[in-house]
Amino acid sequence: MDSHSASSAGASPGLTHAGWQFSPRATWAAPALLVAVGYYLAARIGFAFTLQPYPISTLWPPNALLLAALLLAPTRAWWWLLAAALPAHLLVELQSGVPVVMVLGWYISNCSEALIGAGLVRAFVPWPLRLDSLRNAGIFLFGGALAGPLVSSFLDAALVSLIGWGERGYWDLVGTRIFSNTLAALTVAPLILTLASIEIPRLRAARTVRFAEAAALFAGLAATCLVVFDLPQFSNHTAPALFYAPLPFLVWAALRFGPAGTASAIAVMVVATIFGTVNGLGPFAGSTPQETAREMQLFLSAVAVPMLLLAVVLHDRARVELDAREQRLQLTHLSRVAMLGELSGGIAHELNQPLTAILSNAQAAQHLIANKSADPEILVEILRDIIAADQRAGEVIRRLRTLFKRGETQFQPLDVNELVHEVLGIVHGDLVTRSVEIVPELAATLTRIHGDRVELEQVMLNLVINACDAMAGIAPEQRRLTVRTRKVDVEDGAVQISFSDCGPGFTPDQYAKLFEPFYTTKPRGLGLGLSISRAIIRAHHGRLWGSSTPGKGASFHIVLPAPRGR
Amino acid sequence: MAYVAIVDDEEQVRKALMRLLRASGLDAESYASGKDFLEASALREPDCVLLDLHMPRMTGLQVLRALQAARRTLPIVIITAHDAPETREQCLAAGATAYLRKPLEEHELLDTITAALGAKTR
């Protein structure tokens, strides 16, 4: 290492989830050192995976490592990384007694493979590449695992022929190199790319049971691969069936551990298979070295490609679902906040009442004390009332804070009657100012249902506000809202909550559109309340529907199932 | 001693206002609904009324209109925890003497009552 790199090694270039971060001041030393060390070790592994006396490795990982390094780095850092590989290349190749010219020729063809692959990928996918969509994975497979090894192999074989090293024919060299390097690009590069994209905080946050599952998966896979690929073959007839034995583990990895888990599982299988084969064990042993290598490489490549794609597709779908869920949560929260905005007048009423009691009580006490006519008993009573009023105001704030908060859905056992009381408490101010009388008809005992308190309160609030709005046009003394809870006997403990108003009701035509998003009959409504309410109730495995006799009011009913396994 | 009737459905508010008015040297009684007040006021007419606007069954506005219909002119101070500009106009049009927002400032409340009592005696 020169003095420059040694002095800058203390800087903090880092492998982040996005790729290598390069600060403007060349902090390339650590990534370059990583590439050099990695290249050297990868070449040693490549040499170890050689089928003696056949001189070409069955898996040549250094080029795939270079490819992954280039894909993780910004384009302007590529030359530094390729240069960093040169000392490692010279160190490892010159040990094997190859002429310097040939060693340099291989350096050129190795670098060209990484450059072609990375260049093609970079042309279509901006830095950094993440194997998290079918498009990205497809471009990587085509550019990095196919075009790079293919094109560079022609160059490599031409250089070998030109220099006159070895005795093998041009096409033989091309074919052998393509398979060996493609397999490496399919296994090593995705492994590095996906491991580099793991977010450390998320890994730290993972529960022990996840780690246990991963350990079980990899132990099972390793044991299976050991039995299938690393034991002497008893009979050639059983071999084809055994090939499928590791597949369940790979599918498990794709389903549960994403592209990183799948790439790791593929790597385990590839290492186990090659290890067995170079030691003359497992189903591939027995043919000529060339045939053995070819069969094994084809098998491993044929398994790796679909498994990687499966993992990427599943990961992509899970991400889309997560995004949709996040948006649904945001929309639900927004609509809840908008609804609380509608209630602001009523909320002000609810806070002003206790504030009035507190202020007038305190001022009365001041008078009593100033007039020296204060009976201690009366003062105690006043203070008690002040405390009670203060607590009431605090309760209003508490209820609101819960509803304003944006959080994950949290299912818990809930008493429906208590929810109804809570909701009526929140809208109390509105009910009073709008002269709506509540007629509660609550069942004495109800099964506790399983649900999210805030979301269910949101649905009930929405129905109460709708009912109040519907009754705005009738005489104040006729505005009655009946809230009924009851056990649904035919549905094994399910609970029904009904809100019945005395408004004009709705026609069947109106009902058909009532739950559609953005349908509203209110001048300032968003038209999202009922559609979000229905989505919430569906997520609770319940039902929400309306019924009406036009001119005689409308009713909305929620049925929530009792928790299973009671 | 001037007699002020307080009409409010909130018990805590009723109690607090009654204490304040009594401590300020006024005679005060309270009623939980418009109906209770109308019945009681027929027997003993107050010198001034603090009337809450938003009450169940019978609102403050309905009480005002009932008094108007009975051709009874009483100094009425509307008190409300829910302030909407249009209700102020409605109340004044229906014969209210003054319109105050809760929470009630002591001086403003007592000044308003004093002014209302003065108007009655004039």
CA-based gyration radius of chain B: 13 Å
Give the helices and strands of chain A as they follow along the chain.
HEEHHHHHHHHHHHHHEHEEHEEHHEE
How many beta-strand elements of chain A? 9
- Summing up helix and strand content along with how strands pair, one would put the structural category of chain A as alpha+beta
Number of domains of chain A: 3
**What topology, given as strand order, has the largest sheet of chain A?**
4-6-7-9-8
The helix/strand class of chain B is alpha/beta
The number of strands of chain B is 5
The N- and C-terminal alpha carbons of chain A lie at a distance of 70 Å
Parts with pLDDT < 50 across at least 5 consecutive residues of chain B? none
Major sheet of chain B:
5 strands, parallel
- The unreliable regions of chain A are 1-18
Q: What share of the residues of chain A lie within helices? A: 55-70%
User: Sheet with the most strands of chain A?
Assistant: 5 strands, mixed
Helicity of chain B, as a percent range: 40-55%
The pLDDT mean of chain A sits at 88
Describe the structure.
The complex is a heterodimer of chains A (566) and B (122). Chain A has 566 residues and is of the alpha+beta class. Chain A folds into three domains: 302 residues, no CATH class; 64 residues; 156 residues, Heat Shock Protein 90, CATH 3.30.565.10. Helices cover 64% and strands 8% of the residues of chain A. In chain A, strands 4-6-7-9-8 form a five-stranded mixed sheet. A two-stranded antiparallel ribbon of chain A has the order 1-2. Chain A has a two-stranded antiparallel ribbon with strand order 3-5. In chain A, strand 8 and strand 9 form a beta hairpin. In chain A, helix 7 packs across helix 11. Chain B is an alpha/beta fold and 122 residues long. Chain B has a five-stranded parallel sheet with strand order 2-1-3-4-5, sandwiched between helices. The longest helix of chain B has 16 residues. The mean pLDDT of chain B is 90. The interface between A and B is medium-sized, with 35 and 29 residues.
